[in-house]
Design a protein that fits this description.
Helix content is 40%, strand content 22%. By secondary structure, it is of the alpha/beta class. It has one domain: Response regulator (Rossmann fold).
């Protein structure tokens, strides 16, 4: 059976390090990209099951990345969780096509529940 893949893109290394550490305790492959410019090509190459993306990042914003993912027929089924501290983040994420939105600061249980609820990846 193919291992599930989670791709995390956030320019905040503290968040990506924490999520990566938690996910590595499970039977999943975790890939982190802190540079949003490089994220889309990596997602196309890796074909992850889940993408966790910050909404507000320099150069390529999370909503643009989500639109590109959902606009690619090969990636349409990728489960996208958008995280953001923005007040209007949920509306922007939903408009872009995100499957779930989680407000920052988030409770780790919310992220784990969102992953379990979406593609059914059991974390921990």
């Amino acid at each position: 059976m193919k291992r599930k893949k989670i791709f995390i893109c956030d320019d905040d290394r503290g968040i990506t390090d924490m999520l990566q550490m938690i996910f590595q305790l499970s039977d999943v492959d975790v890939v982190v990209e802190n540079n949003s410019v490089l994220a889309y090509d990596a997602i196309v190459r890796l074909m992850p099951d889940v993408v966790i993306v910050d909404l507000w990042m320099p150069v390529v914003s999370g909503d643009l990345l989500i639109k590109n993912i959902k606009g690619n027929p090969l990636l349409r089924d990728v489960y996208v969780i958008c995280i953001s501290a923005s007040r209007d983040g949920k509306a922007v994420a939903t408009e872009a096509g995100a499957d779930r939105f989680i407000a920052k600061p988030f409770d780790l249980d919310d992220v784990l529940h969102a992953i379990d609820e979406g593609p059914g990846i059991k974390i921990i």
